[in-house]
Every structure is written in structure tokens, then in C-alpha cells.
Amino acid sequence: MSKLKRSILVYPEPALRRKAKAISKVTPSIRELVSDMFRLMREAAGAGLAAPQVGELLRLFITEERPDDGIPERVFINPILSKLDGDLIPYDEGCLSLPDIRGMIRRPTFVAIDAMDLEGNNFHLESDAFPARVWQHEFDHLEGMLIIDRMTPIDRLRNRKAVKNLEREAGH
Fold first, then answer.
1. Catalytic residues
2. What residues contact residue 37 under an 8 Å CB cut-off, 6+ apart?
3. Across the chain, which distance is largest between two alpha carbons, in Å?
4. pLDDT digits (tens, 9 = 90+) for 12-35
């Protein structure tokens, strides 16, 4: 059982805007964090979740198994995106940290990613399908970026009221 009661942070929580730090080694606390993250992601029916979204400024994200989309359940520690290639394709994205906010986000179709798993093994993956989009979305969280930063101007305008409501609920 987790010592901390973690939850998914909601915008405008400041931790969502901070750059995450590299993980030097996999410790029991990292394993506990990953376990909590899988629980929270599944409760929220997400495709992925990044550590900053639960208040841990660590370079770590997870993906949920989605066989129809080609995504396996996986842990990405200290991920590095490379070979971002292809046309910038718009896709309607949402985010667990921005409830009820969706917008068209343009991302490259092809991505290669290098990371480490929970056993300390390095791995390399490539995708030109939905996993490529999920990896980019979660990687953005490690850089302190949110979908509202990447939305088209029209979608930013369309979501302005919902964003303001989140800020008001947080006392901003």
C-alpha cells in the first residue's frame, strides 16, 4: 500500500509546468510510484500518465495496454524521443490533467523512443501509429508542456472558458 495518497493533478497545478528530472536508479519508491500511476491511469481510463501529473517531477511515464491501438503496458524511464518524422497530423487529444478539454494537436506521425524499463533494461521502440502520439503527449508532460500549449488557435479559443473555469476552481 502506498504511503502517499497520490492523485492526478489538474491544471493549473504548478507542478504540471515544471521540467522533470532524470531518474538515476530504479528504487522501491520508483516501483511504488509506477504502481500508483497504473492504478490512477486505469481509474481514469487514460492511455498514458506521466509522473509530473501525480506530483513527481521525474522523467517517467507509463502507457496502458490497448491492443486495438498497438500499445502495450509499458514503463518509460528517462525517455528520449528521436527521429520525429512525417507530416504533422492533427488529432483530437484530451488529457487527464485537463478534464473536459479537448483539442486538435498536430504531431509528427513517426517517432522513435529510447528509454529504460523497471528492470533497468534499455529499449528502443518506433511507431507511426497511435503509440507515437501517446509517447509525444506524455513526453510533453516531462517538459512542462500541456495540450493547451499545442492546440490550434481555434481550439484554444473554443476551450478558453473551460480553462478559465479550472483556474477559477483553483483560486487563480
1. 138
2. 6, 49, 51, 54, 60, 62
3. 45
4. 999 999 999 999 999 999 999 999
Instruction: Please give the C-alpha separations between residue 102 and each of 106, 137, 154, 156, 163, in angstroms, as whole numbers.
Output: 13, 13, 12, 9, 11
Rounded CA-CA distance 100/97 in Å is: 9
CATH number (domain holding residue 154): 3.90.45.10
**Do residues 59 and 51 make contact, with C-beta atoms less than 8 angstroms apart?**
yes
The verdict on residue 4 lying in a domain is no
pTM: 0.93
Three cell numbers, residue 16: 504540471
The domain tally of the chain equals 1
What gap in Å lies between CA 108 and CA 127, rounded to an integer? 11
